[in-house]
Amino acid sequence: MKSQVFINLAVKDLGKSTKLYTQMGFTINPQFSDDSAKCLVWNESIFLMIMSHEKFKSFATKPIADTKNNLAGIFALSMESLEQVNKVVDSALTAGGIEPKPIQDHGFMQLRTVEDFDGHTWEIFYMDTSKFPTT
Predict the structure, then answer these.
(1) pTM for this one?
(2) What secondary structure does DSSP assign to 40-100, as a single string?
(3) Could you tell me the fold of the domain covering 5-58+71-131?
(4) Digit-coded pLDDT (tens) for 95-110
(5) Are 84 and 42 spatial neighbours (Cβ–Cβ below 8 Å)?
(6) DSSP three-state, residue 110
(7) pLDDT tens per residue across span 55-114
(8) CA spacing 20 to 30 A to 49: which of 31, 42, 69, 130?
């Protein structure tokens, strides 16, 4: 089996969060989804599990962080172009996400930041390694 990444997040409103993430381009895997959790697929290697707080608590070993007011992590997804970055972030904003800061342009990499309803932070970026600075 190929290695895969599963990101697990607690969300307060599963329906609103599912809409936001599907607008961003994730697809739902119904085999691993129910009324308390949704398995969202980015690609064959990256999966996002969003769960109600009750469901998440059944896996957690610590209290759920208040990610609306405190940063618990930043999740980054690379795109094949700046146009794709803009499409994903603009779709998330249309679905109710927020963009806490303007686009960052580092020459070889452009990135935009978007937060979901619970404050989970995503950086959507495009990197052109041929423009990476050499010293």
Answers:
(1) 0.91
(2) EESSSSEEEEEEEHHHHHTT-SSPPP-TTTS---EEEEEESSHHHHHHHHHHHHHTT-B--
(3) 2,3-Dihydroxybiphenyl 1,2-Dioxygenase; domain 1 (3.10.180)
(4) 999 999 999 999 999 9
(5) no
(6) strand
(7) 999 999 999 999 999 999 999 999 999 999 999 999 999 999 999 999 999 999 999 999
(8) 69
